[in-house]
Design a protein that fits this description.
- The chain is an alpha+beta fold.
- The protein has 2 domains: 8-31 and 232-238 and 246-314, no CATH class; 49-214, no CATH class.
- The protein is built from 13 helices and 10 strands.
- The strands form 4 sheets. A 3-stranded antiparallel sheet has the order 1-9-8, with no helix packed on it. Strands 3-5-4 form a 3-stranded antiparallel sheet. It has a two-stranded antiparallel ribbon with strand order 2-10.
- A hairpin with a 4-residue loop joins strand 4 and strand 5 (116-121).
- Helix 2 (18-25) crosses helix 13 (301-314).
- The chain is globular, with a radius of gyration of 21 Å.
- The structure holds iron/sulfur cluster (2 copies).
- Residues 75, 78, 132, 134-135, 140, 142, 146-147, 150 line the site of one iron/sulfur cluster.
Length: 318
């Protein structure tokens, strides 16, 4: 296997040598990380972040409605990274498959903290500062399928793992952009109530694995990447395919030696043939396995032995 850039389509057609993949992507045990941050704000940056750490029970003033003087302002020039769940729900809402949605409504980008590829919602205008394709006089025309970032706003998300801590801890903070008058409204509610109102539960459940990968890579990036190196272009392409285009990833899983290489129950194989969310979750497990060597998927014995033998050979061992 070479590091020549390939498209996800190349990967579907081509025999994927899992031994090489293991060899190429294997990462040594995780260092003791202190802080992993994922923000979910939609401004262009430089906006004031209220540094107060909000828990689910903490209150804040906010209401967005058609009567505010800033109505729709935030839907222009917005910087919105789409999550895997966003792409599924928006595609379904528009009656297209993810590949068509990606081509029409997104621009490729790099999630800068992690150096991994993501899709951002396309804004109009040569400089990307124009209107979102879905904004109209009445507001968001795809309100029921609007992205997670639009739902959370004006909340940002931090996921933190202190040194030696067992688990990550999530909390929110408020982003106060000067143009947003929603903060001056009388309505006061707590973070949990706001999140329930904005119906973010599906997104939190489905996207968790993706956020975990981005955050862990962001932490690794501070060290220069896994083993001090950036991940290969090919691995980034596989990451993009598995997290944005379920149809391409399904063709890869069912059409390559993937199922011969990993222990996956027959019932699970049947489910991922039609269930897009289940396939996304499998994709996150696979990525965690190849990027971080997490035991999220189990390689079949003969593949594992082959990879070990190859590693030993490369090291000059007998
Ligand atoms: S998706 Fe909807 S809420 Fe989000 S920026 Fe576009 S129009 Fe606004
Ligand atoms: S109140 Fe804030 S969120 Fe609502 S339209 Fe105005 S800028 Fe956008």
């Amino acid at each position: 296997m070479t590091n020549t850039p390939r498209t996800p389509d190349d990967c579907e057609d081509e025999y994927m040598d899992q031994e090489d993949l293991v060899d190429q992507c294997y990462v040594r045990p995780e260092p003791n990380l202190e802080l992993e941050v994922f923000d979910a704000v939609r401004g262009q940056g430089g906006f004031p972040v209220n540094p107060v750490r909000l828990t689910a029970e903490d209150n804040f003033h906010f209401r967005c409605h058609k009567g505010v003087s800033c109505w729709n302002e935030c839907c222009h020039g917005a910087d919105i990274t789409l999550t895997p769940c966003d792409i599924l729900k928006m595609s379904k809402h528009l009656g297209v498959r993810p590949a068509e949605f990606l081509a029409a409504h997104t621009v490729p980008a790099t999630f800068d903290k992690s150096n991994l590829p993501v899709a951002k919602l396309k804004m109009s205008g040569a400089d990307g500062k124009g209107a979102c394709a879905f904004v109209g006089p009445e507001g968001c025309s795809i309100y029921e399928a609007r992205p997670a970032t639009c739902r959370y706003y004006p909340l940002g998300l931090v996921s933190m793992k202190m040194k030696d801590a067992e688990a990550k801890e999530d909390f929110h903070f408020i982003v106060t952009e000067p143009h947003c008058k929603g903060h001056q409204e009388e309505r006061e509610l707590n973070v949990a109530a706001y999140k329930a109102e904005q119906q973010v539960a599906d997104y939190e459940r489905v996207d968790r694995g993706w956020i975990d990968i981005l955050m862990k890579m962001a932490s690794w990036a501070t060290l220069g990447g896994p083993m001090g190196k950036d991940v290969s272009i090919q691995t980034k392409k596989m990451f993009f395919m598995a997290t944005t285009d379920v149809d391409a990833f399904r063709r890869f899983v069912l059409g390559s030696r993937f199922l011969e290489s990993y222990e996956i129950a027959a019932e699970a194989v049947e489910i991922i043939k039609t269930d897009d969310e289940a396939l996304l979750l499998l994709g996150f497990d696979w990525l965690k396995n190849i990027l971080f060597n997490e035991p999220t998927l189990v390689l079949k014995e003969q593949i594992l032995q082959g990879a070990i033998a190859k590693a030993r050979q490369d090291m000059g061992a007998a």
